């Protein structure tokens, strides 16, 4: 983590948004996720806007190589394409990527989808509710240990969530797989939605079919005798 990022997080602690920042819980190609706890004395909260006790701090990496294949998800997205130009810096692209994740999560929350709750965005640092408990992150769907009944329920929930995402949130995840779904308290949570696009995106159909194919190949579901419900999205 660079000095600029450390300073951003320190300011969030100083402003009493965060009380404590713990260790890293996940490292991916595009971001590092840390566990943190919010400050119960945060001056910006009310009974109606209470912060989650445990938070995930998603720090998007500011290295160009990590985003070399991601500009297509921004420049062809009507919501962000006007903010992309030939002179757009790497840092600006990363900030847009983080903002896009916040916008997509907020849209998902509004239609009742299970996903991290947005707390705050500051440049390339996104603070969300922590999916897990007591500093232990929920397992990815690929690592979840489910019996047959729970696996069937998880399958149906994933399909229904994909349908709601498409029909109600007007979004396609565009990178959905067993790696981007967390299993917590017998429910599935969609994560990592920076690349999610609207159905009007020129590659929307390709992304949708790829998501469907990825879910059809989830190892947890392979042994189940289930109908293929994708084509009623």
Automatic annotation (TrEMBL):
Location, primary (coarse class): cytoplasm
UniProt catalytic activity: L-seryl-[protein] + ATP = O-phospho-L-seryl-[protein] + ADP + H(+); L-threonyl-[protein] + ATP = O-phospho-L-threonyl-[protein] + ADP + H(+)
Localization in the cell: Cytoplasm
Keywords of this entry: Antiviral defense, ATP-binding, Cytoplasm, Immunity, Innate immunity, Kinase, Magnesium, Metal-binding, Nucleotide-binding, Phosphoprotein, Ribosome biogenesis, Serine/threonine-protein kinase, Transferase
GO cellular component: cytoplasm
RIO kinase domain boundaries: 1-232
GO terms of biological process kind: defense response to virus; innate immune response; ribosome biogenesis
Domain of life: Eukaryota
Keyword match Cytoplasm: yes
Required cofactor names: Mg(2+)
Molecular function terms from GO: ATP binding; metal ion binding; protein serine/threonine kinase activity
Membership in a protein family: Belongs to the protein kinase superfamily. RIO-type Ser/Thr kinase family.
Name of the protein in its database record: Serine/threonine-protein kinase RIO3
Organism per entry: Acanthoscelides obtectus (Bean weevil)
